[in-house]
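ok so for the tutorial part 2 we go from a plain amino acid sequence to predicted structure tokens. step 1 is just haveing the sequence, like this:
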Amino acid sequence: MFLFLNSIHSPVGDIVFEWITDKRSWIPFYILLLVITIFKYKWKTLYIGLFIGVLMLVSDQVSVQLFKNVFERLRPCHNPDINTMIHITGKCGAKFGFVSSHAANSFALAVFVGLLLKRHYPFIVTGMLFWAAVVSYSRIYVGVHYPGDILGGALLGSVIALLIYSLMRYMNHRFNLKITLN
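step 2 — the prediction. this is what the tokens look like for a chain of 182 residues:
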């Protein structure tokens, strides 16, 4: 499956997916999400921002410390059995790839923001999940993750998002912060 998906490439696709896979490319998008959150939640965005910070920290560290460093599955671009058969568009990255931190982080943010804003913007869940899926697919395209790495990362990030969102709602209720969340 990886070799098939990775073999679907073109010069234009290489440029597009290199841009998509670069975390810095999404800074304007993150700023837009921040502006939307500020618009809907005003000063309460500070409270929400703390949980988003925890979300991203947990998602990133769990994907590396509890998965990549435990399973030690080589990335396709480091795998000597197939690395000559794959299309790599940039840097290979660290040695191990299960689970994809890009997928975990993207899906964590997508699910959390989707839950947070779905009441105000019903389309946001679909849009955020589509964004996370495209970012995640870009990792297969550029040759650094297997589909299983992506699926594992997406599942991990989604579960972490549900847990952190639930914790935020619990803390809001427990300490009577009167922050209206979905």
